[in-house]
Design brief:
The structure is a homodimer.
Chain A lengths: L20 H8 L3 E5 L2 E4 L1 H20 L3 E2 L5 E3 H6 L2 H5 L4 E4 L5 E4 L4 H11 L8 E10 L14 E11 L2 H21 L4 E5 L11 E7 L5 E6 L5 E3 L23 E4 L6 H8 L7 E8 L2 E8 L6 H8 L4 E3 L2 H8 L14 E5 H4 L4 E4 L5 E6 L9 E3 L18 E16 L1 H6 L2 E3 L5 E3 L1 E8 H11 L1 E2 L2 E2 L10 E5 L5 H16 L4 E4 L5 H11 L3 E5 L7 E6 L4 E6 H10 L4
Parallel strand pairs in A: 3-7, 15-17, 17-20, 27-28, 27-29
Antiparallel strand pairs in A: 1-2, 4-6, 5-6, 7-8, 8-24, 9-10, 10-21, 11-12, 11-21, 13-19, 14-15, 14-16, 18-19, 21-24, 22-23, 25-26, 29-30, 30-31
Helix pairs in contact in A: 1-12, 2-6, 2-12
């Protein structure tokens, strides 16, 4: 491609709303342009990178035995009502009515469509297992689209769906897809980690893993063990049980006692004003969700993990109760709520259940209770892991390593769905004995456009992008220093012809621009190798620039060609 | 691919709503499934055909110097209001509001998006010409989606847009795209014709061509000359002027005379009841559109061509006036309307202007006028070609050949837009003299999914589809007659391995089904070559079936392989 024809205007500065490096650089280097909030056009350079990613994904999906198909974006709303996700997705679903006033949803995902399709296509176990995938556009009405391609409202996804007759089959399929995902992300040159995850709105009954590109701008926190290979999204990371399994003898403990704590509503105030250590406090938080109001108890130095609570309750959404709800349920304002005498379901974190005694709100304004004994002064019917794991805590799996935290960008997510959709949408098959059973499903997503942004975020320097060779829009960038110089023109054109014939994707900067502009644009675009055709071309020499190592070397043109074709750079 | 894993259920009968051959066969052979009216899922076989078409389109677009990009489906409604197409498209535009109540359009085409993008990207003539294209999903809320993929509400398109500094540049670009289209349709194995066309809602100032797949189910009628290469959509086909340029001497003609015609309202009644030849009659039709009411005059044996009238008036839509409007405008009901004394703009077809005299409605119930002389009894201010060309008529270009009609499916359409969009959306560039000018645009569409349907429609027989080799989902279909037979299994697997290694896309029917089912499914799916591995496999022989010629031959396995790899079939 000749750069004089390429639609790729570089910008000196990124628009102010671009806050992350990938967003700034993809805009500045002419890869993407915003059409509306969270909605982007891919310019030719961006489209080329997307196509490279798509090709890698296709190859690995095909190798894993998945079949490509293509499902519509417009999906009848009834399907989403039948799966009960119409409400769960709420405002994130883009909706429209057609001219006959039939309601449609623009698919953020395709479980409903594929499951209802399979209901009609496959009736016998003999036609299973089947795994299908597609690469296409998804829609999600994000409240706050941000970071360019990271969280868009219209974006590219690869989504796959598997259908097995049993859980063992799903385990095999899941494992095959897991490995395919590893190969895909490795081939894309990503620094990533597979972590245990929460299923969220996709749901399902089995395990689920997220693939996280490690990056400081990631929205997710990952807990990683220093000793074993445990890694989990903090939403889901379990807390080590270890020291919490203590046996307590409550018979000799003093009775709970009320004391005056005027204006003291928080653990911080108890610590600062009354010198009470947070680990002696039992926090009582009132939540609502799943059609009920309930209390969650965690130790004063711990945080409630709402995902764990939500999953325990079986609700799709939970939230801290508003002040009116708190007063109605606890007869006191928040800050003085306590579990003693509270007529709500109590969810106690394991660390609370392990306390000999603690300090709680008294259920009365300006008073707290001391010597409150769990199991004696309030019930311990619902004890589980309800708190967020802490950095430095013990690994819940090996019990030896220490957890440290990383930030990650979710680029893939795989789920063992089980029968969640097949039961609701009636996708059953007859087994060998003639019995009808719902098919066992899995689903597997990769954010294609987000992956492009994650690779850009991980591969840049002060000058611009640095594409891994597998994703680079072009492998080689020829920079002709002076387009008026006939010797340079002859050399640059010959080199361009030669590389193109050898199948090396090459961009020739044949623009009538100053050398400085060409160097800057080339570094910004991040093509792995630049070959500078300047004055030395008269002697058969070029400058060979490796973008990643930022090294340069003057070598023979023939040597430059053989370096490029032997693929030692980028 | 092993057919036992392939998601491709064949159906004995197509659903009743499938009326065309392509729709029936694509459903029956397991290529597509309907999700909602005009909205289809592409099963793996269908997706493979689409990918073949996409690859051909990409290669030819790239070879023609076009750059691939990708634009969003969700487009701010303001853009469509700025181009004044929001109203023109009307109910065919799919519209939705996001959570912030901003209105979006789901793009049926992308002139607005690309033109507003170019406004920001390209400011100097030095960056032109540029041609970009994309392959993606389009949305159009058809009132009556039909014929499966022929007229869908969500469909796949390749759309391209060119930007030049002048009309000469556009002429070059247009010609390059025209040739690329020819190569694409030839490679797809289509019987097609490029025809002069009307620009419709896309608009523009220059010429426009449609590429028509010739087919009896086509919605468009094409007029084709028997002698020269003239071919045009009947909407647009000109009428030969020839004999109509007569000179008339009106001085000796009798005055117009009223005569009683009780209950006679139509040309047919005049002919049958009063023995008046239709070519002696002048029909007067009242239309409304473009904010006015006007009359169109054509000879009794001719039909009004509303596209020609619409373009002459400069309206986006015209329609026959309703009876109330007719009575208000002509003081009489339709059937007796005539041009004499009518105070409306009169659009007279050239054939009317060429009449010495004629019979018209009298503008009075139950009366007509005879000896009405055009130019004497009513004005001839607006004389042009307002009628539909007729089969058997003289070619308007060579004046020698005779027009015959064909039916066509529009699979591509190319337009010289000129400045229609660049002026409205402010896409200008500075020329060499520093003057700002709107860019000169062209646009170029191919219906990818419709093309698949057109090829299917043109390539089938009573047994099923017959894909051209370039589009076939697989090149070879191995049919193993008995999966219990170990000799057959060994031979079929070895052949499958060998062909796959040679890069021949092969489908192996390894299902435990009867031979008859396998033959029927194979013929239905339309893979160019079937190789039957049956009892003769023990002797190294297979049956070689050519789908198109429906011929079969028993040959050595090695010979079968060499025939396939030398590509002499399909």
């Amino acid at each position: 491609m000749r750069q004089s024809n390429l639609l790729a205007t570089t910008l000196r500065e990124a628009p102010a709303e671009a806050e992350t490096v990938n967003h700034q650089l993809l805009l500045r280097a002419g890869y993407i342009r915003q059409l509306a909030a969270g909605i982007y056009t891919y310019l030719p350079l961006g489209r080329r990178v997307l196509r490279k990613i798509e090709a890698i994904v296709r190859e690995e999906m095909d190798a894993a035995g998945a079949q490509e198909m293509l499902m519509p974006s417009m999906q009848p709303a009834e399907l989403w009502k039948a799966s009960e996700r119409y409400e769960v997705y709420g405002k994130e679903l883009m909706k429209l009515n057609d001219r006959h006033d039939r309601e449609f949803v623009l698919g953020p995902t395709h479980e409903e469509v594929i499951t209802s399709l399979m209901r009609g296509e496959v009736s016998s176990y003999r036609k299973l297992p089947v795994t299908v995938y597609q690469i296409g556009t998804k829609f999600r009405d994000e409240r706050r689209p941000r970071s360019g391609l990271m969280r868009g409202r219209e974006f590219l996804m690869k989504d796959a769906y598997s259908f097995d007759t049993g859980w063992e089959g799903l385990d095999d399929t899941y494992s095959r897809m897991y490995k395919a995902y590893q190969r895909i992300f490795e081939r894309c040159g990503l620094v990533y980690r597979a972590v245990q995850a929460d299923a969220g709105a996709i749901g399902g009954e089995g395990e689920t893993h997220e693939f996280m590109a490690i990056s400081g701008i990631g929205e997710d926190t990952i807990a990683v063990c220093s000793a074993c290979d445990y890694a989990a999204n903090l939403e889901q990371a379990e807390v080590h049980t270890g020291a919490e399994a203590v046996q307590r003898n409550v018979s000799n403990l003093p009775a709970a006692e009320k004391f005056h704590t005027p204006g003291i509503r928080t653990v911080e105030q108890l610590e600062q004003e009354l010198r009470i250590a947070p680990e002696q406090v039992i926090k009582t938080l009132i939540y609502q969700g799943g059609g009920q109001v309930f209390a969650v108890l965690v130790r004063g130095d711990h945080e409630v993990n709402e995902v764990k609570v939500r999953n325990y309750i079986g609700a799709s959404e939970i939230a801290l109760a508003d002040s009116g709800t708190v007063r109605a349920a606890a007869s006191v304002e928040s800050g003085f709520v306590g579990p003693v005498g509270l007529s709500l379901t109590l969810l106690a974190d394991r660390a609370v259940a392990a306390m000999t005694s603690g300090i709680t709100g008294a259920g009365e304004r300006d008073f707290h209770l001391r010597d409150v004994v769990p199991g004696r002064d309030f019930t311990l019917e619902h004890v589980a892991d309800f708190r967020t794991a802490e950095e430095g805590g013990t690994c819940p799996v090996c019990g030896e390593g220490v957890l440290h935290f990383e930030q990650g960008i979710e680029i893939g997510h795989i789920f063992k769905l089980g029968t969640k959709y097949s039961e609701k949408l009636g996708a059953t098959v007859l087994d060998a004995a003639g019995q009808s059973n719902p098919v066992i499903m899995g689903c597997y997503g990769i954010g294609i456009s987000r992956l492009m942004a994650a690779v850009a975020e991980q591969n840049s320097d002060g000058q611009g992008l640095i594409w891994p060779a597998a994703l680079a829009p072009y492998r080689v960038h020829i920079l002709q220093m002076s387009v008026q110089d006939e010797v340079q023109t002859a050399a640059a054109e010959a080199l361009y012809e030669q590389l193109s014939k050898l199948g090396v994707e090459t961009l020739l900067d044949d623009r009538d621009e100053r050398a400085g502009v060409k160097f800057k644009d080339s570094a910004l675009m991040g093509i792995p190798v630049a070959i500078v055709v300047g004055k030395a071309a008269a002697g058969g020499k070029v400058e060979y620039l490796d973008r990643r190592s930022d090294s340069k070397e003057v070598i023979d043109i023939t040597e430059a060609v053989s370096r490029v074709t032997s693929g030692q750079n980028g």
